[in-house]
Amino acid sequence: MAGGVRAVVADDSHFMRSVISDILADGGIDVVAQARNGREAVEAVVQHEPDAVTMDVEMPEMDGIEATERIMAERPTPVLMLSAHTDENADVTFEALDKGAVDFFTKPGGEVSMEMSRLKDQLVDIVSSVAEVDVGGSGQSTATTTRQRDRSRPESASYTANPTLVVGSSTGGPKMVEQVLSALPLSADLRVLVVQHMPEGFTGRFAERIDARSDYDVTEATDGARIGGGEALVAAGDRHMEIKNYRNGRLRVKLTQEDPVNSVRPAVDVTMATAADVIDDPLVGVILTGMGEDGADGIQRIKAAGGRTIAQDEATSAVYGMPKRAVETGCVDDVLPIDDIANGILDTITTEVTS
């Protein structure tokens, strides 16, 4: 998987640069240069033209955010941010995603070398996946554009009662999720559940970002949380989100720390499977960009329960892993570019348009 991938490692810590470079090299990734700060990172990218960059957030002279912005302007290259588990780092990490970074990976705490060793396979996999992303492509549009286009739908559109939407995504997903939810009108009265592969400490900030960009009331899930129409929950990092019960248009979730599913927690499959088991009103499952196969089983479960299913297309997916696996099940009703997914969701719950 990693064969042929060339990477630049940027970190102001000599120790961390060495640990990360060794892990990547052991995984078959060619580390063509190391950088001590953002300025050196930009220079290394221009000089070596790597397939991917691992970028520390906080560095002297030029931080990771400015370096990412410069790289995207001078030689667009997939960037993976390496961030610590702090609220401040969560904020700047999302800012880096806004500047063009593809995804992020959390730096280990405590015994760094032991933690990094434990996470080494994950780091090699995500760098390999990020390296495949076409950051110079024009397939991805902005949430603002999509929201304007989707709001051209007639105000008189009538929707089925009590619909529930489950959205799953991974690598490259945060911006895509924001785009889709920002385009959904409150009149659709959806109950929305979002499962984004994201570590603990970041999902709360992610929920706040979606809430600010969406007409829906979006919060991070807590154990026992209930939502009704016009509300959304984002699965908490390191917790599976199960649908515990559903009554009178309101659903309640349960958070667990049971074993990872598809090597991840939270897992899309867990939320989709329990939604299919519990919810008897209209149900829509959507799989967006991401590495791995999480969500494929969940899509089958939703389809078997009579729900509707949508997957993002390859052209607009940062990583066409999860959507591809979902499509391969034969249980996906529509494969759509990111710009059309919000309308695709609304189409599944629209009953009529009156004059």
- Read across the widest sheet, the strand sequence of neighbours is 9-11-8-7-14-15-16
Distance from first to last alpha carbon = 55 Å
The SSE order reads EHEHEHEHEHHEEHEHEEEEEHEHEHEHE
Class per helix and strand makeup = alpha/beta
What's the CATH C level of the largest domain?
Answer: Alpha Beta
CATH architecture of the largest domain: 3-Layer(aba) Sandwich
CATH superfamily of the largest domain: Methylesterase CheB, C-terminal domain
Low-confidence stretches: 138-151
Shape: elongated
Overall residue-averaged pLDDT value: 90
| Relative helix content | 25-40%
Percent of residues in beta strands? Answer: 15-25%
Integer count of domains: 2
Summarize this entry quickly:
Helix content is 38%, strand content 23%.
How does this model look, in words?
The strands form 4 sheets. Strands 9-11-8-7-14-15-16 form a 7-stranded parallel β-sheet, with helices on both faces. α1 (14-26) crosses α5 (112-130) and α9 packs parallel to α10. It has 355 residues and is an alpha/beta fold. It folds into 2 domains: 6-130, Response regulator (Rossmann fold); 143-353, Rossmann fold, CATH 3.40.50. Residues 138-151 have low confidence and may be disordered. It has 12 helices and 17 strands. It is elongated.
